[in-house]
């Protein structure tokens, strides 16, 4: 009887501890969803690091070194696509399944994932969590102020939007897999193997990760334009973001009914797609190591493919290390911009670039406010855009200097891989695979900060939001 009472008391203490832990998680999720999101991503990275370290995850049955396991976990959860090992040959089937699951979990997005987990913990989506979810899915509403309701996702629609995120991911990846399967068969892939590679490629395209399940990468499909076009479509759908997908789903091609965010995202994405392709075509057409050995059609198509992939896709046909230095600079610029907000892409986001470009244009025209499509963009959104660019540039600069000092590698190669990591692109000059462990940890941290987002990271670190009830005297310093 005494032993039974001891067991009962121990069980009660364990249950009480679990209850307190659950209450603590719920309070954290409701009080600071952004900080909770960062902790969720950290927990996922640690979990997948442990799983990738298992002997069963490697093809040869040995334990993967900690630095490589950690880097792969960060690259997978942050849907980056960079790797310090050969992703096709190093991992076992179990390891590839982990990669597939990890990129789909990471693709849900930091705040969206936090909102879903907060919903599971608290049994309901509280007001603050809804506000955070609405902010993540529509950046134009992320920072208060009188904003036209047509530009924002209403709180009542957040649950519907979260459902759209999960459903659209499932439907789009399934459709892409169905389209890719015949091409895999035509290119000599075994029908059973193709049943795995088709959904794997579709997930890597939609999540903008860029991992390839076969040792040859995309080399066997270099001239299969249908296969490559499907990959580009998947990358485009993943990079425009769930808010735009939600808008297109509701309003289709009624452009006037689109939100300002959707208009800016689609227009800026298309412009950068064509500008990037034109730049690569102009700079690489006479390079025998890249486009110089191709005919006119191949050169044009590959220029557009490279433009799409430098926006966050991560797939590559040509050897990135053979690009001219000028092309590496163009690629770095495209990667730094990235894709749409609340998307599987990284970077500072196309809406950030659009807002800054509109601010410059309005200043040149002498307008008192920044306007676009009959709407006024408030000054706080412009300040956030400037902050994102400043913090992104700072992170990339510090990481480039640190890794450059550690490796003594050519700075243009270091800068390209650092921006690729920060913007979660996955293209590499070949530097990442040969990094020493200290540089691996620096680049892993850069990828994490790039995926979590500078604004989210700042919000998670900040203890409170302070309001100021007075105004200081105005004085204008000389600028420019």
From TrEMBL:
GO CC terms, sorted: plasma membrane
GO biological process: metal ion transport
Keyword Cytoplasm applies: no
Transmembrane segments: 36-54, 97-121, 161-181, 225-249, 261-283, 333-361, 381-402, 439-463
GO molecular function, one term: monoatomic cation transmembrane transporter activity
Keywords for this protein: Cell membrane, Ion transport, Membrane, Transmembrane, Transmembrane helix, Transport
Subcellular location: Cell membrane
Ribonucleoprotein listed as a keyword: no
Chief localization: membrane
Membrane topology: Multi-pass membrane protein
Stated name of the protein: Trk-type K+ transport system membrane component
